[in-house]
Amino acid sequence: MLVVIVALLVVPVAAALICLRAPAAAAQAATAASGIACFGLVLALVPAASRRDLTYLSSYLRVDAISVVFLLATGFLYACVAVYSVGYLASGRHDPGFARYSRRFYAGLNLFAWSMLAAPMMSSLALLWVAIEVTTVLSALLIAIEDTDGAAEAAWKYVLIASAGLGLALLATIFAYYAGAQVLGQSYNLAFGPLLHVAGQLPRAPVRLAFGLAVLGFGTKMGLFPVHTWLPDAHSEAPTPVSALLSGSLLAVSFYAILRYYQVAVATLGPRFPRNVLLVFGVASVLLAALYLLEQRDYKRMLGYSSIEHMGILAIGVSFGAPLALAGVLLHVLAHAAAKGNAFMGAGVIVRKFSTKQVAAVSGGLDLLPWSGPFFLLSVLALGALPPFGIFRSEFEIVQGGLRSGGNVASVILVVLITVAFLGLAASINRMLLMPRAAPVPRLVSAGGVGGPGSPVSRLPEPATAAGAASAPGPASAPGPARAGSQAPEPPALTRGEPSAWMVVPVAAGLLALLVLGVHPPADLTQLLARAVHLLTGAA
């Protein structure tokens, strides 16, 4: 298994180096091959991790069943997004600067995936913090890659808030070291295994502080209320493949870090304190997301708030503490990665087709997008926990586990808020996909769109404000800053068809995965989840 683990760390870096020097076509091939290979490598870890923990390289690398669950989420999304990106960038291949942009994009995408694969394999809390810090730097660069004012603002907001949160997480790491050093001696290196082994002997006060700071610090990257404010902006402004990885993988990796602190906290303090902390943060997050989903006008921001909702569901599920609820939480990590990745990839197709991110400007999606329209609809229904998809199964297990553990009130609140959130999603999707399309009318467009000055990615027009004011680019003969209020020519009528088949196949794979997770998870996966639940409850 050491060869598999080392390959997971080497393959994405090698692909990134190739992308920095190779032509666009070679970069696409290297990225797609790396994504598919990494997912295959993660699958190879499942049987071994279902039976035992794997520790290598002088205890620097540690993989157990919990780690592999999160590696599966990242590996699957990495493979899907790598293939999807081929079609996503196809529209700009003849534009000036495409070669440079594609090299930066593919190199950044591979390195971002590498950092999220590395984090769950780190053996110590210190290395885990470093790995998550690396994900912040790489994801911020990808959020800003479009070089627009909105992207730059979202990236800076993300960096400031995430850095503040990771500062708190670093303080949590220091308290964890202090607690471990009291029992293991000053030479203790923050390795997770030894700390968990002596958790019953640790001083309670520093462990309590470490867990609270970890939830608040890593919760910033996870998108928990009240440190969630970067998330909708970043998801809206980032390129669609990056948004899919941010939502389906990055948030989950941050949740993984909280789970590690949770294991130690429960073993040291008992279940009451850590579960109450997670319950408060979880309910607040789901409540905020449900209310905001009722009135979203930007469908990528809408999906961002949906991510906050699902991170809150994970926190609530862990707070129940029952083995069935924990199994539902781990299954939810996988199902949410597939469903949210699908939803963002479907949203990217709609952006390409309609050249807007505004819900009110999109209609007739089912008619104009014969494949992506139904797939996007099914992906959103899956996010809303409709059967037979995986999220229905995972949320059913979480609620059932909550009822078994005596959390009746919390379970009822969770069901009500999930229903409210689904109504918000359903209203927007009904407008975008099922409403017949009206005749095209002149639109006002912004100067930057999503591509930014010189970007090869096609520009996305921003709709006018309620008062009808917006900025628009100058005449084609005079490139440069836009003049406020100028009107773009009427766009051509949209024709029925897909922007690219490369953008359809990964979504179909995601829907298949959701069906498998919801109807009959494979035996190896069931065994993996059972061992992961044992690890989470064994400390208790």
Report on this structure.
There is one protein chain. The chain is built from 19 helices and 4 strands. It is mainly α. It has a two-stranded antiparallel ribbon with strand order 1-2. A two-stranded antiparallel sheet has the order 3-4. A hairpin with a 4-residue loop joins strand 1 and strand 2 (61-63). Helix 3 packs parallel to helix 13 (323-354) and helix 15 packs antiparallel against helix 17 (408-434). The two termini are 29 Å apart.
Question: What is the secondary structure topology, with strand pairs?
Answer:
Layout: H1 2-21, H2 24-49, E1 54-56, E2 61-63, H3 65-88, H4 98-118, H5 125-143, H6 149-184, H7 192-197, H8 204-222, H9 230-237, H10 240-269, H11 272-293, H12 299-320, H13 323-354, H14 365-368, H15 372-383, H16 390-404, H17 408-434, E3 471-472, E4 483-484, H18 505-519, H19 523-538
Antiparallel strand pairs: 1-2, 3-4
Helix pairs in contact: 1-2, 1-4, 2-3, 2-4, 3-4, 3-10, 3-13, 3-18, 3-19, 4-5, 5-6, 5-10, 6-8, 6-9, 8-10, 8-11, 9-10, 9-12, 10-11, 10-12, 10-13, 11-12, 11-17, 12-13, 12-16, 12-17, 13-15, 13-16, 13-18, 13-19, 15-17, 15-18, 16-17, 16-18
